[in-house]
Amino acid sequence: PTERPVSGAPGHRFSMATEPAFFVRRADPDDIDTLNALYDRIYPEDAVVLESLAYFHAVDRGVLRKADQRTKFLLSLIETSFIAVTVEDEESHVVGFAVLDDTPLQLSATEDAGTDWESWFQDTFELPGIDSSNSLWFSTCLIDGDPNIMGEILRTTFSTMPELRSVLTFVPATITEDGAMKILQPFQSHFAQLDMMSDELMAMTHWAAPSLEGHPPMVLSCNRSQVIAPLGIRIARVEDHDNLAAVFDAQSEVVTSVYGDFFIAELIEAQNDENRALVAEVDGRAVGLMCLTSDVDINVLAQCFQVDPYDNLLKGPYMKRVREHSRRLMEGQDAFLCAPGDFLQVALGSMDMDALLDSIPKLEDGRINAVQLHGALQMQEFSDEVGEVLQEFEKSIMMLFWQANFLEPMLQENSLLFPSKVSECVQLFMNLDITERKAIASEVLERWAEVQDILKLTKEAMAGPGEVETEEKEEKYEENLGDLLEADTTVDTVVFFKALGQEEQGPFTQDFLAKLLITLHWWGDVDISSPLALLPEDGYREALEKVMQSEEGLFVSHPNSPSWLANMPPHSKDVFCVNMFCLDQAFQTQALDFLLPAFSLFPEKDYCIITQPHTAPNTPLLNAFTIVPPQPQNTFGHVLYLIHRASLLGPPKVVSLKPHLLEQVHPLLEVFEEETRQEIISQSKLFLQERKASELEVFVVDFDSQVVGLIMLQMPNADVVDRLRCCYHLDDYLLVEHHETGGFSNKGHVRLLHWVLNPLFQKYTRRLLQGALRICGKTALFLETELKESVSSIYRELLQVAPRRPPQLKKILREPPKVASFCNIEEELPTEEDLREKERQQLLRNLEQTKALSIVAKKLLSETKIPVNARIVVVGASDCGLSFLESLLSIPHLLFNSLTLLAPGGLEYHHAHHLPLVAGTAAYSHQELRRIMLELRVRILDSRMVHIDRQQKCCILHDGSMLPYDYLVVATGLQDDALHALKIQSMGVEHVTDGYRRVNGAMSAADPSIRDLLVEGGTLVKSLIWNPLSYAVVYGRSLNAYCVVQGLLLRKVPAKKIILVLPSRSQESQQGDISVNAFYEGDEVEKKIHHILETMGLKVYEGYRLLGIQQCTRGRLKGLIFEDHNGGEVVPLPAEETAERGREKRFPAPEAARAPMGILEDFGASPANLPQKLLACRICITADAVNVDPDIFNSVHGNGLVYDGRLIVDHSFGTTDPAIYGAGSLCEFSRRFQRQNSRYLRHDGFNGREVGAKLAGALLKRLDPVNGDSVAAGGVGMTTTQDLPTASMMTATEEESSPDLLPEFYMPIAKGGLLPGSLHYYRIHACRRGDMQEEPSIKEEQVIVTDTLDLANGTGHFCRLTLDAFGKVDSITYLGGEALQVESLWSLVGLSETFLNYLYQRWRDNDIPDIVEFLADEWATALFHDRFMDFCHQIKLEMLASEEVKDLINKALEGVNLKEGLSRKLLTDIRKDLPSESVKQIQDHLLDYLQENTNHLKTYFLSWQWAEQGARK
Predict the structure, then answer these.
(1) Would you give the DSSP letter of residue 1151?
(2) For the whole model, what pTM was predicted?
(3) Which DSSP state fits 228?
């Protein structure tokens, strides 16, 4: 079993000089035998203690007394409780076991008691700080003596669960005093009894009932602070340097060597408002440092990460304005968040005005010429946004200079001025921030009465005496001041401002008026650009009010601009950053103590962020943060972690939906489509109406009286879990029988219908799920996702369960007979169970199923998935690459955040809508990949790698873009090499390698775009159908070649327009490669296929090698040149033809001069002096011998990676670059690992799916902090080779003597395709064990063949089985019109022939005319079951454990030459002599296997079923 520490964190051994060390890990069901032994050691037979134990565990005494029932009870606790841990000592002996749950065991074990313990607890003890979100209860505790074991359990539990505040133990009142002394002994050192605040006793039927004597139950409590003392956090001081330097040096010597010995003191001394530093102190010694800064570039973060849900790290009001601005821009409207003055401030802030003034020549008195200033300003350049607004920057500055000195005339060409005056003017302008501008406007408006009087007097003075002739007019004028203000008299602004000055007895100083004038012009939307500007009728009151109502100018670019948020003011940012952190290793689990003081230093900021390298190990501090997903175009080299201030206030709580909370749910549902929103609302209302009668449970997530999430669950019908077990590998993750209710409502499964949560609280997802499960009393949750619809983001927190395959050979089952015998029998009406079974079988066999299953058990919610941020790039969507990704994603405790697959052409199921065209490996079905949600968890790029930059650790793609990696996996496999050998790139490949050319019409079967090029109804296919001069040549002997021929026929291409050219077989199998030949020489399948082609009239030319390709002036394919290997004589070309050919090389022939299409013509001699032929055609599709892709070869070989016919890798699939791995048919294990028996080293002899899984296991040693090495766990890397017990230390001789370092491979290799005649072809054979020449030839008695195939109508089957020397099935070949389950054929390879109902003897006696029909009978379904191999493996292990069986086999093998194999007689003799006990054991295991899998294996009638039928009778 995989042993994992609690919560997936690395286990810690705490030891003192005189104390033993203990290791706490997560309990596993395989621990059950050692736990039973531990129980027997601690609690020997004692009736009093046994009775008290039964009360303590809320079970009957018989459960603990009987070993089998106790085993079931302990297994149930491990499987269904929140967390179960096992403690081991230094010698790996189990010395402790504890189970903690979110409810007391007595409450859970009481029928209809529910799970609400909080109301009783608060009524009894009145401790509001203890609730279900921060407390756990002991369900059981087995400790072998040492009290330090309990301390280790508590320390590890509190360390790995930072939100946990209390651990409680419920002691029933019925426990006797003697029993309590024994049972509660482990709790004495760390727990204290809680004082009851209420004397009221519960009823005797209550789960917390008193004893018969009236004694209440007890609750023992242990608080976090009793186990882990909080750190003292304070502001850092310079004198902390020595202590902190020691902490830094213990973890990294790089810091002081790069930054100097006193960099910490300098850092602390440099603290200011933006940069702060905190220190953790223990016993007066600094043990940790956290440096913080509020100087954060939010523009870069917004460009590289998906921070929009967090308001792009801006404060709410600012982000609201930015969003509105962006919306208007995206709609094509004009939008500005800045006044002209804001743009001018940005422009002036971006330039050095003093340096510009210094560059202008000065006169003797220090003054400069205005013309020269004008010219210097004219040369300034700004960003596009600023430049568009300030198109005449120099005029703006000249005008600003006059506005600051408005009583003086404007500057002229010959004006002279002091540079200091210009600087003062600019400084005055830059100081006019929003606060200053509003203060100026406010002061003017407060004294508006005085301003009005001055305005009246100014207008009166400007009107002149002629207009005020009589006293009567003057009196009327004073009665109505408004008349004068509305008069037509015009007033110059300068005159009015001069009248407002104190020199003219006005209220304002001249400096104030200059600021006012500048404010009105640049931010009040009025024109005061010259002394001639006229005063408006209202005296600028409207402009002043506009200034008062204005908001701060935000210089925001277009949302798609790289500088979108680059100029946001510092106070608008809502974030600060941890830019340095270090903590002594002994206190790492207390790192969260820094966060609250950190936020207190920046009270106006709500977000704290950390950036870390992708390969940095996960730490307890980072566990509190949320990882922000990157943008697709992310160029930032780190991972972004984020936490909100609210997260420190405590976790949100799960509560049942109440009517008054329904309105708060509506805003959360905006992420759903309208139909889904209405469905959620209607179901929520139905739940509120029916409550307990409803099958729904609706919860809301409450935080500070706000609804921040919604969880909707559904109680499934009783048969749903059986359906899931039948259709998915559910039993691989759950012990389902322990989650069954058993008559109580505290166990069982529940379906998740809908989930929505504010992203700020995403970190609490697992605890919220746990809360929902606790309230509804369930222990397992599942989610069925329809992949055709939108998928909830919660799937990342769940485990994806792979679908199961039906145990059958044929995809379409045979119809059952209409009658059961010779006389008609009335059919019985199906029962409800029969109907459910029929539905399950239909779902299991539905090939178009698009549902995916995700699950999580309560026990898994206690550990947060460990994020793995390393950027893993897989090159090639081969079986190996896909299996590697699938294996990584199947690890329950790891969450891979950065997996990328380079898959030119996409995944196979992306082309499911196309007609069949090329062969497949049959390793993955279309729906299998889709239903494990691979595409949702892996970024799939339709792109090609053309180069590797090892220094920058990135892949260069064909479009020039760079894809960074931390680990690169090259799994491209081998490609058809026919065109590459001629330096021609396939037509559909976008990138043309240097030295290669593209010919329009020449393509390879390995071309990722071949399905699109030959799409039904496409240009090329239409040309083949309708153009009489257009022919297609398919070249090659591989299975792909025959499949392409059938693909063209399916696309309605006439057979006479297709030519199949087969190279000579002698050219295959060079250098020991596995042959690409579809069929061996004389193969019956080949004969049948060629007969079909001949019947169709399709030409087949055999024995020709492709030498060259001719193309016309337009780059189109003109003809193919072949070398004849059939022994013909060279026919020399006429002299004029030879000259013509030479001329054609220099001047390609025009389109009109073409050779006859589809006919082989003599074309002189080849360089090898063999006959040469010319075949004119328009389309050529090659599918011949394979080799490395030229781009991959250049990438690998050009970077110094060892390539010797294959990419050379070590036993861990590593190359000479530790960051680059290789696997699949492209690769080969180093010859240093060669066995003396010539073990096959090239990966093309192994199943790609198995190779990918082994590769994942090798890489996980570096990625998995739990089961990997110390570096993966965040430990200090080794620097000396003396401490590295790995293969890298070994000499070549030692490696050769250690062949066991290489992984073993067992899975068979399969390939299949649709061949001409619409016949399905499958070939499955065992993986390679040694070199071809080492393998013995197949004898006649090792081949079983049946042939009922009718080529005329495609009915019947051709099937050939070969057996190896030990009587095991070595290969299976099938040809027929009926599609079979390839996985079922897989399961037969490697089985002894006797498993197949003595197939050979019965076939030899002519009892089996058709192998396929024989194996399709129901007796064989057990062989095709997905757990049959596990059953065989279990029997094998038990046989190996029997000394009697081993002696029998060794004796029988004496004198037998194993190279010649085992005779059937020898095997029969061994079977006869097997001990009866062993035979009985095998039979019992077989019956158990059939009984455990009755949901699939309905055919077999077992003994217990016979007994049930007898009982019913």
Answers:
(1) T
(2) 0.86
(3) S
